[in-house]
């Protein structure tokens, strides 16, 4: 009888200790969680502030002034954009095939110009004519005639 | 608790002393005689009742334990501490342009306040604060710090940099108060579109007001159709023109002809939404959307489209424009009088009022009104912004009103309505639904067919003709095939009739004309002629060059490839060959 009391007493003691330990751990974790959440909140706010700052620094007028000062770029003119199918054949092909240049060029058709990618803001845009899938690459005339 | 009962029941024999069989489960009851029996039975009943009550209580505790351990998470607060009021309130969502550039956002800001009772040396504190905050008046702050109050604001809404500087001073009694404020990084550039919020963060103008619900509870930012770069280019060119011609205001629009997205909406003068108190009513007024103006000759496009679409007039028809038209006391003149009979393309090209009136009268008032109605010119335009102007139409509508309305006088509409109508005329005949929200090409919104594709094709050619050879030559941007129509309207005088030297100069255009993608509009209010334009302040001199420069700058941004020389284009241009008196224009 005594032993069983003692046994249950020990069990109760262990249970109490375990409970205390667990509760303590939970509390610590909760504190950590709270701190982390606060930090996340603060970081988010900081990100938001920095985003606004970035947007502010990206004002087109500012970019334009900076580009004028440092880059020396100018707005692109239509003359600077050419589609690949309008390029003349390579010089080495001239000797092989003595055909008039205008016959080598494809007949004028609705112009499917390669996509124009633009970089920059405002007047300082740079465009480059890309090769969509290489479709517009010139087939050397010599090869097609052979 | 139940133990003793079991023990007592174990002692009870299954057969009573009298030999009665109590049965297997009846061991609980022990029959005794007299007082003892009563006392015992009372005791047992009490024990039974008490045991039952305790059993119930323990069951309850066990149930609650199970509930807590298994389902305990439900409905429990996740945090040990209740979140503060600031964190509970959702932050107002940001407004972005179509490329994700922030146009409006809500930022936490600090404000500095002080408790003068805790400040020991107000003079020193004030001078030190002035080193961190250069724009405050140290004398004033010193007086207030020396006052007998327990709370004074030192500066509201300081920057993080200022906050760090003040923090570094470490003056006791100086504290920070956390607040939130709406920030517009691009200031006056998009203020008419984005709008404003009041001190409590409720939208009171522009998109802030139109989408207030979405912005105040949503975490998703609002993405507009506005392209900041195009907005900037339009604003820059317009304000340059406004300055050159000493105008009192200007408006500019760039709209996707197919999706109806508004890429740029400029109204000058404008205001800085970060400092709304400084803005006068003129600066807050959205001329592009709220202002109604008699637009003048840009309406001739609508009249011509109506006449051609209804079939009463063909491109090859001509009218005699030698004599002014007289109706009662009215007299309709041409700005540059022409003698003889001219064709429809020539009427549009030279912007002949007389010829346009003839066209309109040929079709009749009913057709004209119905067509203007179909183009959305007679009713208030509905789109996101609350600031839309109600068109002004004559009441009652007489024949003379049909005549003047055909060339854009006596009927006042908003620039946005003109742009929408022109989009339909140029894009193949479908009236788009305008929007300030970002759309993808497949989200076109509701479109209504208002004229045939054939008429639209003819109108494209006419619009290109105006820029190639007519009044709008200065709008041309090499390679981008700008087409359009100039407009120079007399402004109504407050005394009645029209003011002599007050005009609205405008240009409505589209590009590229072989397949119009964008509609562009520019308008300057009350431009004055200058030497360089030989005293002219017409649409062709004031706003057509604006359109030319804007198109040249924005076309590369919009991914529109320039066309090569016109000789190559002519083979593919969708035009209607017109032969009229063997003139050059008619020969294609």
TrEMBL record, chain A:
Write out the biased-composition intervals (Low complexity).
Answer: 107-130
What keywords are annotated for this sequence in UniProt?
Cell cycle, Cell division, Coiled coil
Coiled-coil zones: 26-53
Q: Where is this region: Disordered?
A: 107-146
Would the keyword Coiled coil be found if you checked this record's keyword annotation? yes
Asked if the Swiss-Prot or TrEMBL record annotates the protein with the keyword Cell cycle, the reply is yes
The alphabetized list of GO BP terms reads:
cell division
Q: What is this protein called?
A: Cell division protein FtsL
Lineage of the native species?
A: Bacteria, Pseudomonadati, Pseudomonadota, Alphaproteobacteria, Rhodospirillales
Automatic annotation (TrEMBL), chain B:
Kindly indicate whether the keyword Hydrolase belongs to this entry: yes
Answer yes or no on keyword Membrane: yes
Localization terms from the record: Membrane
Question: Any idea where the Penicillin-binding protein transpeptidase domain is?
Answer: 253-550
Q: Which PANTHER family match?
A: PEPTIDOGLYCAN D,D-TRANSPEPTIDASE, PEPTIDOGLYCAN D,D-TRANSPEPTIDASE FTSI
Q: Which UniProt keywords apply?
A: Carboxypeptidase, Cell cycle, Cell division, Hydrolase, Membrane, Protease, Transmembrane, Transmembrane helix
At the top level of its lineage, which domain of life is listed? Bacteria
Organism (species)? Tistlia consotensis USBA 355
Any Gene Ontology CC annotation? plasma membrane
Gene Ontology biological process terms from the UniProt entry: cell division; cell wall organization
Q: Where is the Penicillin-binding protein dimerisation domain?
A: 89-197
Which GO MF terms are attached to this record?
Answer: carboxypeptidase activity; penicillin binding
The coiled-coil regions, if any, are none
Name of protein: Cell division protein FtsI (Penicillin-binding protein 3)
TM annotation in the entry: 47-66
- InterPro entries given in the database record: Beta-lactam/transpept, Beta-lactam/transpept-like, PBP_dimer, PBP_dimer_sf, PCN-bd_Tpept
